């Protein structure tokens, strides 16, 4: 969900604006102006009765684009104006949508240019109904609206208020600015659209025997929040997670592992197609040299456990011939800055995210300190969800820069 649509841009987007017959057509002229001002290419298609309310020349002047009204345009390639116009569009928005056009769409009719375009589209269709309150409430209209909704058409409004006919009730078209905000939200392209992002999260569990093991208090909250934030920016997320009690976000691929070695194998198997690797997991540095295949018996004697180092997963990835953009995490107990800078250098990371182990592990809030080529950036203490959003924006920015160089 996008909270502030003002910041979103429509530059380069192509919107097919369908205008059907209704007095609200004058509001569509304002909408066409606003969308054009936002950098969007607005292609207007009017029904015959729409042009009785507002002339095509108005839309042509406001959008700088020719306006289409006829199914049989003489200039269209092979007389296939309908296919051509809807193939180019990112979205079709019909505003106002009359009861008549709604009925035609619900029935799959295609007896004018606008309805033909809608039937031949492969882009989302949104409609902003506008009509007298009784026409709106009529069971036939409600049936048609229901049917369109089930077909995946998004219905915007209508609002309630004073109507052109003097009556008061539901049926007013939403205002142009409201429609613009909805269009922006719908067409918003996330910062990581289509990018493959691999995230490791949570602790690992290193078995000592069949029932006992070594682990740490990592909750997985930071890694899961980052996975959600990457999803919100339209990334294709693979999440490799150690044992946690959390409900995982709806990622493209979820891989559950226990030990560092299992996490390593899963990363190696997934890494090939990845654009970005974010290593958030608190991987155990050591594991038992040998795992007892039976439960160890309790005795009065001292028990010495031999530990061997685990493979460093992140280092393995950064040393690949063509590594993805790698982000490391460092939970530090002291000398945060020096340790983090050293770790970044040692693991050759474009970005290292450090936090205080006492503050971060298991909690809902954390301070993050980001180290990259430009220096240090502090994200003051906030919820892990908020920090994850900030971090993903920073990663997307650095990743974009790296790719452009
Ligand atoms: O050197 P240190 O273990 O503190 O580095 C932490 C970073 O390295 C984290 O991003 C963590 O996910 C990653 N790591 C790893 N494999 C290990 C240990 C740490 O990928 N065995």
Features:
405 residues, alpha/beta, Rossmann fold, 8-stranded mixed beta sheet, 5-stranded parallel beta sheet, 15 helices, 35% helix, binds cytidine-5'-monophosphate
Explain the layout of strands and helices.
Elements: E1 14-19, H1 25-37, E2 41-46, H2 50-53, H3 56-63, H4 81-87, E3 91-97, H5 99-107, H6 113-119, E4 125-129, H7 133-137, H8 139-150, E5 154-155, E6 159-162, E7 168-172, H9 176-187, E8 196-201, E9 206-207, E10 213-214, H10 221-232, E11 236-241, E12 253-256, H11 260-270, E13 276-279, E14 286-288, E15 307-309, H12 313-318, E16 325-332, H13 336-346, E17 351-356, H14 357-360, E18 365-372, E19 375-383, H15 384-404
Cytidine-5'-monophosphate (C5P) is lined by residues 200, 260, 279, 281, 283, 285, 310, 312-314, 328-330, 343.
Structure description:
- By secondary structure, this protein is α/β, with parallel strands linked by helices.
- It has 2 domains: 182 residues, 3-Layer(aba) Sandwich (Rossmann fold), CATH 3.40.50; 209 residues, CoaB-like (Rossmann fold), CATH 3.40.50.
- It is 35% helix and 24% strand.
- It is built from 15 helices and 19 strands.
- An 8-stranded mixed sheet has the order 12-11-8-13-16-17-18-19, sandwiched between helices. A 5-stranded parallel sheet has the order 2-1-3-4-5, with helices on both faces. Strands 6-7 form a two-stranded antiparallel sheet.
- Helix 13 links the parallel strand 16 and strand 17.
- The protein is elongated.
- The two termini are 32 Å apart.
- The protein binds cytidine-5'-monophosphate (C5P).
- The site of cytidine-5'-monophosphate (C5P) has 14 residues, from helix 12 and strand 16.
């Amino acid at each position: 969900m996008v909270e502030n649509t003002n910041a979103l841009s429509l530059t380069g987007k192509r919107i097919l604006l369908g205008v059907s017959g209704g007095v609200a057509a004058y509001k569509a002229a304002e909408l066409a102006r606003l969308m054009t001002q936002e950098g969007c290419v607005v292609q207007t298609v009017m029904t015959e009765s729409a042009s009785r309310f507002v002339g095509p020349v108005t839309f042509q002047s406001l959008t700088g684009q020719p306006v289409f009204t006829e199914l049989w345009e003489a200039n269209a390639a092979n007389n296939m104006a309908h296919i051509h116009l809807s193939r180019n569009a990112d979205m079709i928005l019909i505003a106002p949508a009359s009861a008549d056009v709604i009925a035609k769409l619900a029935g799959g009719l295609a007896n004018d240019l606008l309805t033909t375009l809608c039937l031949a589209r492969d882009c989302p269709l949104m409609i902003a109904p506008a009509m007298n309150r009784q026409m709106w409430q009529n069971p036939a209209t409600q049936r048609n609206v229901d049917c369109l909704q089930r077909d995946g058409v998004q219905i915007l409004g209508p609002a309630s208020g004073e109507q052109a006919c003097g009556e008061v009730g539901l049926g007013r078209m939403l205002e142009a600015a409201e429609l613009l905000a909805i269009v922006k939200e719908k067409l918003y392209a996330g910062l990581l659209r289509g990018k493959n992002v691999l995230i490791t999260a949570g602790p690992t569990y290193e078995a000592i025997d069949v029932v006992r093991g070594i682990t740490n208090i990592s909750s997985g909250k930071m890694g899961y929040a980052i996975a959600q934030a990457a999803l919100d920016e339209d990334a294709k997320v693979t999440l490799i997670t150690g044992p946690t009690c959390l409900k995982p976000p709806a990622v493209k691929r979820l891989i559950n592992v226990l030990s560092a070695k299992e996490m390593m194998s899963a990363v190696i198997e997934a890494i090939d197609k990845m654009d970005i690797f974010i290593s958030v997991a608190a991987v155990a540095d050591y594991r038992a040299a040998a795992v007892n295949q039976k439960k160890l018996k309790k005795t009065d004697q001292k028990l010495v456990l031999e530990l061997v180092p685990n493979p460093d997963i992140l280092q393995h990835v950064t040393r690949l011939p063509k590594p993805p953009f790698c982000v490391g995490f460092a939970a530090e107990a002291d000398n945060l800055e020096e340790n983090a800078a050293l770790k970044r250098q040692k693991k050759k990371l474009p970005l290292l995210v450090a936090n205080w182990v006492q503050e971060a592990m298991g909690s809902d809030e954390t301070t993050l300190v980001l180290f990259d080529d430009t220096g240090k950036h502090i994200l003051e203490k906030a919820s892990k969800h908020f920090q994850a959003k900030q971090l993903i924006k920073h990663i997307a920015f650095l990743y974009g820069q790296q790719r452009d160089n």
